[in-house]
Amino acid sequence: MKYIKSELKDGFDLAEIRALAMKPSLEAINRYDSNRVRDRFLDTFEPDETYKIIESDELLGFYVTRERKDHIYLDHLYIKPEHQNKKLGKVVLDKIIQTAKASDLPVRLCALKGSRSNDFYLKNGFKKTHESEFDIFYVYSITKAS
Q1: R_g over Cα of the chain
Q2: CATH no., domain 2-140
Q3: Model confidence over 58-110: pLDDT tens digits?
């Protein structure tokens, strides 16, 4: 698997992956809007912080990490639906955690309430910190023993 920094021209393809991956969770809470889900990604799309997940020249998904002074923010991690449940997300998450360990910074993120991703993050060592109306916020704390 390769991680390739995205380019500005990738924005629409990545927004489409996000829309497909989020559709079941957003439909479950009656909040799916095909244009809005894409626009919310494109409004904050920064190619330098976005990495395409490629295997055998196929785009499988992408992730976005934003380095902050006191943490690494995992803003997006989406895998195409047909490639989910194959441990790809875990491989990517392990890579992000290793980067965080090297920087001695925690990883923070938020996930939509009701999304299957909440179980994924909890199973991978993230701890819930708080909630908002639609999201649950998590942290993966870096300790010298981890």
Answers
A1: 15
A2: 3.40.630.30
A3: 999 999 999 999 999 999 999 999 999 999 999 999 999 999 999 999 999 99
